[in-house]
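Re: your question from the hallway

Yes, I did run it. Sequences:
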Amino acid sequence: MINIEDLSEVFRVVFDDEELSVTEENTANDIEGWDSMTHVLLLSAIEEKFGIEFNQKEVRKFQTVGDLLASVNGKLR
Amino acid sequence: MSFTSPTFFLLFLPIAVLVNFILPGRLRKFWITVICITGLYFTQPYYLVFYVILVGINYFFAFLNSRVARNESKLNWPLIIIIVINISLLVIFKKFSTSSSYPRNLFFVPLRDSENQSINWIFPLGLSYTIFQLVSYQIDISSEVSGVERDPFKFINYSLFYPKMFSGPIQRYDGFKPSLDNPIVNLENINQGLQRFILGLAKKVLIADVLVRYINPVFNMSNIAIPTIHAWLILFLLAIQIYYDFSGVIDMAIGIAQMLGCKLAENFNYPYISRSVTEFWRRWHISLGAWFRDYIFIPMQFRLRKLKGFPLQVITVLVFLLTGLWHGFNKHFIFWGLMFGFVIAFENSKPGAKLKEVWLPLQHLWTLGWVVFSWLIFRAPGLKFVMQYMMNLIGLQGEISQIPFSQTNPYPIFENSVFIAAIAGILFSLPIYPWLRERIDKRINPSKKWYWTIKIVGNLLLILLFVFCIGMIVYSGPLPGVYDKF
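Structure:
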């Protein structure tokens, strides 16, 4: 199981912002720099860090950071 | 039947809205279907059957698609087949249709003899929007983002919804589902929708159509040699005209939908205030950009993510090449798309990132420079014209052509109306209206004594604007929109 803080760490690296802290309710609109250019970079970074793999279908369904967290935890279980 | 034709907004629209308002809720979906079908019939009767078949095929494939999609390991062949059918139809029509036409009846049989009947197809108006919408619907079902629409009437209303049929926006099914199930038909929505419609009508008729009368004669010249200052002026007028034409039509579409109790997605967000070309494409024709982002750009990136070092720039250029092709298989659209692709690829590269640090006005200049130039390519009849026009811009046009005024009328005599329209165009391309609206809404409420005065004055101004628009249409006749032909 990982928590929101573990995920925040990946966000900080990808968006190059040491003070960034995400919440489960956050969406791409809330985080500067999270756009179509960086979205897949973020997903790859999460995959690499936690040793998991997303598939195309579930990726399309992510709406919030919470969805992302739930998916990662579902895979780590 | 264009939104700016008096038959539409003085007859068709009031009947459509009034009957929809009176009918009990459960009958409204049938009425919306009637509106869609009659609207289509009055626009291109010979494509009515075609569109109904297209929608029918998609309706049935959606069921197959969703059944196969439940099984993760299985190849989703219904999805592949239906996408191939949809895209092939679009490609065939884009490739082989011409804009000139001769009348056909409901079953596509020509009404009079013509020498080359077999190849002279006219493009089904709205096909680019409809196909992209249907493809998004099928992909969303396959990835279980949305469910299947079981009600055939609601599916027709989604696929062929008259307000968005001919100029978009490309509406996603999940965003439109609440409008299909529970349209909110009340006086408040009719009032707000009407306001939006009048503002859109004014954008199109009082700004875009005033300017286009000066732009068209220049773009119709076969060998262009005009004074350099005119070349620049016309180029800026073109940038204003295209924006007001397209966004005006979209405002009308959103307004009409709202009068019918439905909510369409926004398609513009003050694109000309963008600080980069990348940002411009998030504010301009939003529904098209979002389509390419969600169905091509991100899925391709995702599939290729394991190939470390595969440049994102390649996908960017490819996506914008496709964006160009969506507009038509002409060299100038391809060039237009590629230009945006390369500029955006550059902006998102390491050296391009430095652009964000330069002086703000220069960022705007960079953005508007590319955008204004892109409209020249977009509007030009071909690439040769673009080259000639650029020579005009830098003063290498040679001898100014002496074309009889009767052929270029009203160019080169710019009346005051052009400058008024242009100044209004520049002002309202800044977010002045929402800024003002917010201030007014915050300051006044029904308890203040000024409330009703401001409300009444506001509505009187809108009525005045509407009367101006009718006067203008009667004077010059309704003109087609730039984005009506896709």
